[in-house]
Amino acid sequence: MKNTKTAARFKLQRRLLTELPGLGKPGALERKPYPPGQHGARRIKYSDYRLQLEEKQKVRLHYGLREEQLVHVVKRAKKAESRWCEALINLLEKRLDNFIFRAGIAQSIASASQLISHGKILVNGKKVNIRSFTLKKSDLVSLKSDVYSHQTYLFAKNSPRLPLPDWITKNDAETQTVWQLTDEPTIDAVPFVFEESLVTSYYSKI
C-alpha cells in the first residue's frame, strides 16, 4: 500500500495526466490513467486558460517550486537574448537540487534538497547548502564521504529514476565519484511531455 505522501504525489500527476519524474516514484498513471475524483474518467473540456495553467503546474511541481519561486526564475529567464522559455528550462535544470536528481544521486528533487540542506553536497570542493544554487558549465559536484553509505544515495544509485543526461558526466574514482556539468541543458532536457507555447502564454504579462 502506498504511503500518504506517495498517494498525494500520484494524485497530483493524475490530475495533470503526466508523470513528473521529479516527484519520485514512477507509476502514477499505470492503474488509473485519468484524473482523480468521482468523474475522473470522463472526457473533460479544457479552456485555453486551464491548458496554460496545467502546463505551468507541470513545471512548478516537477521542479519542486512554489509559484513565487517559479515567477522569480521566469523574470530572470526573460532577460535572456534567446527564447525565454528555453532560458527558463536551462536555469531550472542547472539548479543544484535538480542536478543532484538528474545525476542519479537522489530519486526525487525533494530527496536531493534534503541532501543539500544537510550539507552533504560539494561544488568545486566547497559545501553548498542552498538548493536553488545555479551551477555553471564545468562545475564539479561531489559528495561528503558519509553519503556513499546513505540510504538515499544507495537507493538512487541502484534504481535511478532517469538515465544520466548527455550534459552531465560521471567520473568514478577509487574513493569518490565526481559529476560535472559539461554542457548547457536545452529545452529538450525536460523529462516529460511539455508544451512551451502554453507556458509562454501563461506568463506573457510578467
Can you walk through the features of this model?
- Strand 4 and strand 5 form a beta hairpin.
- Helix 3 crosses helix 4.
- With 206 residues, this protein is of the alpha+beta class.
- Strands 2-1-3-5-4 form a five-stranded antiparallel beta sheet, covered by helices on one side.
In summary, what is this structure?
The chain is α+β, with helices and mostly antiparallel strands and 206 residues long. The chain contains eight helices and five strands; from the N terminus they run ααααααβββαββα. The model has no long low-confidence stretch (mean pLDDT 89).
Q: What is the radius of gyration?
A: 18 Å
Helix content: 25-40%
Largest sheet, spatial ordering of strands: 2-1-3-5-4
How many DSSP E strands? 5
Terminal Cα span:
43 Å
Structural class category:
alpha+beta
Largest sheet: 5 strands, antiparallel
Outline: globular
The residue ranges in which pLDDT falls below 50 over 5 or more consecutive positions are none
Strand content: 5-15%
> SSE string, helix = H, strand = E?
HHHHHHEEEHEEH
How many H/I helices?
8
pLDDT averaged over residues: 89
